[in-house]
Design a protein that fits this description.
This protein is of the alpha+beta class and 185 residues long. Helix content is 19%, strand content 35%. It has five helices and eleven strands; from the N terminus they run H-E-E-E-H-E-E-E-H-E-E-H-E-E-E-H. The strands form two sheets. The protein has a six-stranded antiparallel β-sheet. The longest helix has 15 residues, at 169-183. It is elongated and about 50 Å long.
Length: 185
């Protein structure tokens, strides 16, 4: 059996689920390749070059180039997401700087929450202040949503991407759906 035959197939957790109302839409995000990356500050330049996107150095910041984005999660930690089918894990092969990269593509799923009611919908389960002044476009953070740990990323004034472990996907989507009902009021 070849390596390509032995690889696991990604099964969608949420299928074609859709939720929302007139002020918010909740849909599964497109498939993506993801890595959890840990590295020292002095290794960021070499890793950024290999990934093709500058790893942000400030809290709550993100950077995007093409279909690849890097989200700052901590002083030495990033979530790198590629929606174009390219593997950030593979791009780090051969990089000699000290780092730890784990492919989390099969562990995580993404959910897009968009519309005028997106903030209110997310705030049903997330205590973080999502106002534009505090959580501007491009902001990203690891936080909680109900009982699940998530990574939340603001894509535009009215659109967010929520990343969570696939085992929490149905729970998070259900709670978002309930939040959308409250946001409509």
């Amino acid at each position: 059996m070849s390596n390509s035959e032995a690889s696991a197939q990604r099964i969608t957790v949420l299928g074609n689920n859709r939720a929302g109302n007139g002020s918010v839409q909740i849909i599964p995000a497109e498939p993506a390749e993801r890595i959890s990356l840990r590295a020292r500050a002095n290794d960021v330049t070499a890793l950024s070059k290999a990934l093709g996107v500058t790893l942000p150095q400030k809290p709550k910041h993100s950077a995007t180039k093409g279909t690849r984005s890097a989200l700052w999660l901590g002083p030495d930690e990033w979530l790198v997401i590629d929606t174009g089918g390219q593997s950030p894990f593979a791009d780090l092969q051969g990089v000699e700087t000290l780092h730890a990269a784990t492919d989390v593509s099969h562990r995580n799923i993404g959910i897009i929450i968009s519309g005028e009611g997106a903030e209110a919908t997310i705030n049903v389960g997330c205590p973080q202040d999502l106002s534009l002044a505090v959580f501007p476009v491009g902001a990203a953070s690891r936080t909680i949503f109900g009982k699940a740990e998530i990574v939340l990323w603001r894509l535009s004034e009215t659109e967010f991407r929520l990343e969570c472990w696939r085992s929490f996907g149905t729970y998070v989507f259900g709670l978002l759906s309930e939040g959308a009902l409250d946001a409509a009021v």
